[in-house]
UniProtKB/TrEMBL annotation:
Taxonomic path: Bacteria, Bacillati, Bacillota, Bacilli, Bacillales
Domain of life: Bacteria
Name of the protein this chain belongs to: Helix-turn-helix domain-containing protein
Pfam families, A to Z: HTH_3, SinI
InterPro entries attached to this UniProt entry: Cro/C1-type_HTH, Lambda_DNA-bd_dom_sf, SinR/SinI_dimer_dom, SinR/SinI_dimer_dom_sf, TransReg_Diox_bact_type
Organism per entry: Paenibacillus aurantius
Amino acid sequence: MIGKRVQNLRLRRGLTLSELAERAGVAKSYLSTMERDIQSNPSIQFLEKIAAVLGVTVEALLQPEEPQDSDEADRLDQEWQELVREAMSSGISKEQFRDFLEFSKWRNRDRDPS
């Protein structure tokens, strides 16, 4: 999904794959595999470089859908985005985050008196 968003943004800005790769300082082959969803787990540094050239935030590349109109929903989205950014910058992997979620679910089930 990230690859398709990058590709759509690149095409909207009239950039070729080569131009985006060169301006962002990334390998054209890697960008190509990402756009074709062969590589679906790019690093945050890679996304930051691409986002800067495309004139969007990393969060815009990561969002699965268009933002909602509600101020409260936008605030919540911003809070979640900040948490994701903080986790990524601190080096927490997706696997570690999933493990934490599973532990949290287990702990909450254990505490539930029903």
